[in-house]
Fold this sequence. Notes:
Elements: E1 2-6, H1 10-25, E2 31-35, E3 47-49, E4 61-64, H2 68-78, E5 84-87, E6 109-112, H3 120-128, E7 133-143, H4 167-170, H5 173-182, E8 187-193, E9 205-211, E10 216-222, E11 224-236, E12 240-244, E13 249-252, E14 258-260, H6 266-280, H7 288-298
Parallel strand pairs: 1-2, 1-4, 2-3, 4-5, 5-6, 7-10
Antiparallel strand pairs: 7-11, 8-9, 9-10, 11-12, 12-13, 13-14
Helix pairs in contact: 1-6
Amino acid sequence: MKVCFFGMGSIGTRHAMNLRALLERRGKRAEIHALRSSGGTSNAVDRCFSCWKELESPYDAIFITNPTSLHYETLLRAESLGKSFFVEKPLFLTSAVTADALTPFVERTTHVACPLRFHPVVEYLKERMPERVLAARLLCSSYLPEWRKRRDYRTVYSARREQGGGVALDLIHELDYARHLFGDPREVIRVVGKFSRLEIDSDDAAAYILTYANKLVEVHLDYFGRKARRELELICEEESYLCDLLANNVTALTSGETTTFPQANIHEQEMAYFLNLLEHGERSFNPLENALETLRIAEGGRAQ
Length: 304
């Protein structure tokens, strides 16, 4: 399988290593190329190129793992080079793209990264969601300076608005799995801004209210929570549940019954899912057009 990565930072490297390992387990060989703006080499790939003209297309798959601000340009420019496309989240820096921009990709296999859909708690809820959820609260809170121990948080893309930083895009996972579990809301209310003393120019907190015909869903995202939390609270007619994605468990708050799940490599599972799509010629549950709808909601609009 011959693939090309556009961007080989930590995320691209992780995807490339997972791809190679999975193909080896299946008795297949991966030939991994990468276009890197900085040139140089990478242990995760077989060949690195510094300019587009050097690329050896066609590729079985194109992986767009460069900064969010470059996704749109890269996707359109790489359209003729690959048979299928994997795009890191969020899809683009903005949902304001031309109506026909994604048309060339409609008949191809495309997938936008959504690893929390492969989290055992989310998979469990997708299969066994209580029948009558009245309200839900999603929370993702952590302290940005502690994300990357060896890097100054002020220099990473999360801190830079023009690169796609800010909680609305950086933590779009919560809105994605909310849509995955509950569907599209009828109305979206968003409040976003910078409220802490973090030395960044991107937004460090956002709150969403998603209204449905029969439920209310609240989403809270921030960069300044000193204790990392990633939780979903479900308030139902007969019981309430606390779903902890960091502890991998679901607890019924009245009965106290807890279901705990084993640790899972959700990024590897997502790559396996993508490879299965390619093998069987199937359509992803998060193609480009679906990820664009999630982006619209992240911006405070409704899915179309």
